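re: the backbone from monday

yeah here it is again, tokenized this time
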């Protein structure tokens, strides 16, 4: 992931072939993430609580938000309100690429 030091330290545009990157603005953070084949993230919440929106770019994933599950494909959007448990599993034989939008932002990583 790219280390962001200020609002001018990242690309203003993202393409489907771009690698993982994170962007921290005043009120939102955006991550372009590639999840490897077979990755599983157990049910969890974000700390501090964040609204969490995922847009599938490529690959397939099984998302669970509270008691609802969706096998997601490119173009699908997953919305998790702040404080709501969610988890996922990467399906198939290719990595899953997603755009994650989180608000409010967490503290910027050190370094």
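seq for it, each position gets an aa:
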């Amino acid at each position: 992931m790219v280390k962001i030091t200020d609002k001018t330290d990242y690309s203003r545009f993202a393409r489907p072939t771009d690698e993982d990157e994170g962007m921290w603005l005043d009120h939102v953070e955006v991550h372009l993430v590639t999840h490897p084949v077979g990755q599983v993230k157990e049910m969890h919440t974000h700390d501090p609580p964040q609204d969490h929106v995922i847009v599938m770019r490529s690959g397939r994933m099984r998302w669970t938000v509270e008691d609802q599950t969706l096998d997601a494909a490119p173009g699908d959007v997953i919305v998790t309100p702040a404080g709501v448990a969610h988890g996922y599993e990467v399906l198939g034989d290719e990595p899953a690429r997603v755009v994650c939008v989180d608000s409010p932002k967490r503290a910027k990583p050190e370094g």
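The radius of gyration is 14 Å. The longest strand covers residues 51-58.
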